[in-house]
Amino acid sequence: MTTEIYLDGNATTAVLPAAIAAAADAMGQRYGNPSSSHATGLKAKVLLDQARACAIRLLGVGEGRLMFNSGATEGIQTAVLSALAALRERRERGEPIGSLLVYGATEHKAVPESLAHWNRLLGLNLTLQKLPVDQDGAHDLAQLRALAPQAGLVCTMAANNETGVITDLAAIEAVLAETGSPAYWLVDCVQALGKLDLNLAATRIDYAPFSGHKLYAPKGVGMLYVRAGAPFTPLIMGGGQEGGQRSGTENMAGIAALGAVLSALERGDTFRSHHQLASYRARLAESLRAALPGVVFNHPFDKSLPTTLNFSVPGLSSRELMDVFDAAQVRVSSGSACSAAKAAPSYVLDAMHAPLWRSAGAIRMSFGPLADEATINDACRRIERCGAALRASCLIPSERTAVPHDGLLQLGVEGACSWLVLDAASRSCIVIDPLPEMTGRIESYVRCQNYHVQAIVSTTSGADRSVLIEALGRHFDHRAATDAYGWPAAAAIKLGAQTLARVADGAARHYLLGVADGDTLAPRAVRFAFSARPAVDVLRPLTCAQTLLCPTRDEHNQFCVGMAAPANAGAASDLQLDSAALDAFLQAHPDAQLVDVREPYEFAATTAPGPGGRQALSVPLGRLAEHASDWLRGEHAPLIFFCRSGNRSQKAAQLLRRLGHAQAYSLNGGLALAPLAKAA
Ligand code: PLP
Q: A Gene Ontology MF term for this entry (predicted)?
């Protein structure tokens, strides 16, 4: 199980082998310029004409225009420019044009951004008006009825890219007709191609942009349909290609490839039927329900493309879900691809009135009509594996008690963090500075490993611990008396073999952890000190050079700092180990340790063997302080940290270098770029 399963078809698709062959032919044998009148040019022209003729038949273009371009963003641009230029001319002639540019609240950003751009550039100054959708993603037709008479242009997509929700185009057309709206109508058909039947000339649609790369053609090629009689203004002027509608020598490789896809679509022998695709979606949904308890689908399946599932899981962020799927080599996306880097809530789900946890935590799983049974079955098995990995990591509820952890765990949110001191032997733990945002995480961690929480202490006086105390229920002794810092009536807290001692520092408190000799925790025995801020001066007499300071504010992702002045971490490039150099490095350093710093659920869900084919140690960033303390004591054998992209491992290597470990490295580009080792 090492191959990638690509379930992000709404972002882009692989290229159909027949399309690759057609592109290669257009670049190889038939490389001519279709505008040339010699035989080489004519051969290319035939390709162009065949592709266009196929598109015209397939989309029911009738007497309308069908031009090739670079993709849907260009098509939207051209359509908006055409409609708005016509509106301006009409206004100049003294005709009424309405005052609104209406667009669906769930449109791809290319639509409102183009509307705003051309509205400003053409000096039209019309009002951009969002058309709301209901919780199923359907346009509010009553609102459209009210707006349509004032609208100069209405933009509604055929199917949504995030949720697959299909627009009832017939209902919109009926509203435009019954209100006598003078508006032009743009329908973004990108996600509909190959998945919905289209007969454009039989509708009132004025403009319909398409994109090749959403249906197995390469990126950088698309089409625009313009209804016969609808206004048209070229976006690009020049040599007069595409009948003067879109100048620039044609992207013949792209057009030939798109032509091959369209011809496969027309023949009907390549892509799966709606029914088959719907059965694949049902199977994926069933696996998701079984693997991820409480999963909520963010759109009605019966009103969506059969190739899209958009879901959220209570208690899990989209980042966590993305990471676990990626580890299992299942490629999905959070929200829309354009905003995948940001964990911002999805504006599409916001518009559908989804609560914040669903719109910020959403995952889109989408496949194309070329999907096959074996891939879907494999995807279902990997979804189950992801569920098991999340259960074992206590991120989703499980019937079974998880194997308990020992040592320190850092749980952070945006610069602040809580620390858990865990003792597996006695199944007990201590919580230091519980963050309100971490309540659910701490509670499920404690419950699933069946720990008894001995104490919940704070570094500041009067911090609110009540929410966590209530959430912990029987896992915490509510009756024990504590001071304003949560400290019980004892000089020190014993946790298995370890002792936690407190240090007063004005209004603040610091805590020291180590193995006490009798009742006293000697400075040389202190392994960790916990503080809201690194109070080195106060702590120096009470600790030793090996003590690590664990701050509960960690804006710069330092994890922990040493008592001594930090060593120079070196230039970022000194830390980087290229995957091409990994084998040689491992041969030269047989004692080198590979350390996987991804989260435990990513480690558990991983299907591919690790880099270098060597067994890796799993040490997520939250457990780094604990392990750093051990690594620094020993011989300082080389440490090679890795993660998915090289981001987290770089932080880990920097930490170890700062703490004085001279041989800490980060695998450049992470697992994403590492050549896969052969499975044993
Ligand atoms: N419209 C929709 C619905 C899309 O999904 C996309 C692609 O993300 C676009 C427009 C933009 O298409 P292109 O990448 O061809 O510019």
A: iron-sulfur cluster binding
